[in-house]
Design goal:
Elements: H1 3-19, H2 21-31, H3 36-50, H4 59-73, H5 78-92, H6 99-117, H7 127-138, H8 143-155, H9 180-196
Helix pairs in contact: 1-3, 1-4, 1-9, 2-3, 2-9, 3-4, 4-5, 5-6, 6-7, 7-8, 7-9, 8-9
The protein binds adenosine-5'-diphosphate and magnesium ion.
Magnesium ion (MG) binds next to loops.
Length: 198
Amino acid sequence: MADVLIEQLIGVAAQTVIRHADELTELDSAIGDADHGINMKRGAEAVLAELPKLKGKPMGEVLHASGVQLVMKVGGASGPLYGTLAMELGKALPASSTRADFAAALSQAIEAVKVRGKSDAGQKTMLDVLAPTDRAVAAGDAPPAIKARALAAAEATVPMKATRGRASFLGDRSIGHMDPGARSCALMIAAICDALGG
Ligand code: ADP
Ligand code: MG
């Protein structure tokens, strides 16, 4: 992956979050505290403001710096988790990386999110999108298939009962709503896959 490409991919992910901010806040109003879209939009704007300063930097450095912005600006539970994902991905990626290097780095970064969140797939969080995406990337799926898998995985959080994060306070009442973090994660993955093409 060229270093220019990473800036484009981070850019489309950030723009998608900004475009869908109201939808994400709406989802969080059902099973959380109605701030996920607001939080994510603030972080996405900070990342977009940072990108021009990172021009020409190695891919890993661009990802790490974006993660730092997410930790500082998103707040909530999701900020440190998305921040960890981007920072760890940045740290794990070798300067010139193959697809296999990327798949290995992604798995490593998702493991770091689990440690940070004391969480795992199956708890109605962003990890329910990250885990199947990780498997699709490792299997060598093409971007359209990865996108479809991520969007379906977010939908699949609707019947789940939350056992981590704010939504877990609702117990059974968390059932029947899509997890906001799963949706934001799927939206970003879908945008990145669209940018990568078929
Ligand atoms: P907060 O819950 O602090 O208001 P946000 O609304 O920004 O933060 O983000 C909520 C999302 O964060 C949830 O929908 C869920 O996907 C994700 N999340 C929360 N806690 C965890 C956790 N421990 N592990 C993984 N994801 C989590
Ligand atoms: Mg919230």
